[in-house]
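Components:
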Amino acid sequence: MSLPVQVGEAAGYAIEVEDLAIRYHGKPALSSVTLQVPSHEIFGIIGPANSGKTSFLRAINRMDLMTAGMEVSGSVRVEGRDVRSWRNPYALRQRIGVVFPLPVGLPLSIYDNVALSSRLRGTRKKADLDVIVERCLRRAALWDEVKDRLDSLGSLLSGGQQQRLTIARALSQDPSILLLDEFSIAVDPVTTMRIEEVLAELKSEMTIVLVTNLVQQARRLASRTAFFLTGELVEVTETEAMFEGGAQDPRTTAYVEGKFG
Amino acid sequence: MPELAHAADRRDAAWWVDRAVQILVLAGGLSAIVFIAGIFVFITREGAGFVFDRFDFREFFGSPRWTPTSSHNPTYGALALIAGTASVTGLAMVVSVPFSLGAAIYIGEFATGRVRETLKVLVELLAAIPSVVWGFIGLSIMNPLIIQVFDVPVGLNVLNSGVILGLMAAPIMTTIAEDALKAVPDTYREAAEAMGATRWQVTFKVVLPAARNGLVAATLLGVGRGFGETMAVLMASGHSINLPTSPFDSVRALTATIAAELGETAAGSDHYGALFVLGIFLFLVTFAINFAADVFVRGGQRKRRRRGRRPAASANP
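Structure:
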């Protein structure tokens, strides 16, 4: 990798990963990953199934704590601080929004879905919550479709709407980092494009890590893209260069050209 | 190729097996209904004579005087018996709901690995203790304990039988409540935890509301169990006719009355018929409770199913 090795927020990195390895019940899923994600950029991660992309995200917000058998070694620094040095991992997770592959509308009303995070952090006033709910739903491009039925169950929305609800919920955490794990798997192409527009706007406020199985999506959104293959980081390259034949590794070129994976 | 399509259209072994199994399971389903209806018809027929000749609605539900063996003036007031059953069941629920919900939440949401498996097995073992053993515990352990601790003359009372019944119902309620918690998809927990919710917040804000119907059903089934329980209540309640005013009063339950008296009545007598009317009453109440539990469970399913209804299996051969 040709990136300069610098440390801390001053260097403008939101996430710095050094020699990260992840095992499940002793079986390695990801090994020796070192990369940096600059603040306020969309960082793409592509790679075929089982390449360790999701495990990588799970290490960032310390999901290893609640996953039986998951071991993490190496270091992950978020805004300059090692995630494992947080005494209150719940507070760390509040700063990191996560969107899962399949939409998870919690079995609460649409309103309560979006208000949940603020309520967990002690916001009780209806007026404050109203503002947060409307702002987040608007930003997730869902407000116009649901504003008249905020008290109906979030889990009854269509797949695409639920995924936008999930994004609204993640935004309600007011996160500095947003992790998206193949968010478009259960979403129709039109909705996918709308969400992509939203993400492009959000970049000015937060750092976004976009794991995707659609290489073209990475090309549309990400400034730089990492290619993971069978538990290994092959390379991190400027996205445009990667797609214009400038990849450092021939496997990357083959993958983005659709020759395997 | 129409000839080929014709040749493929024949009723093979798999088709006949499918038919046969459909008929068999239909018979199984119908038999359950037949047995329930049969039981209801039987107790109604035995009680019918009493209902038409002697039954007095106001006496039955309004009077606490149950003196069916009196030679000059037998009375059939079931109020004290109903109050006895209700008070014991009520206290049992006060004991068992917190215990069983707490246990279910611990097993389902907090315990992991071997602790969880061990606890599940133990709870299921507890559910298998016969009710007469619980009655025995009430008689020989709770009784002297209550006399000693509360300084009362008799330890066989509402408190004793309520606690015994509560402990007896708790394991079954725990098992059903834990099933309800387990039915909540892990993706909900993961999504909430990823937002920074603590384990308790996940349980309280997400899992419990999602499992609400199942938890209510578990409680109602516990109530039904308490209402219908006979032996333990007979042994621990003191079995004396009383309108209870404190937990230290001895009471008599509907079920215990039937169990204790039915063997000593002449078939067809008023007393015999009155006991069957108690039976009808019990049947209707437990039926209503189970029905309510069922409605609650279905209420939960309907909401979930609305998203993707499975097409009904085709009945066409």
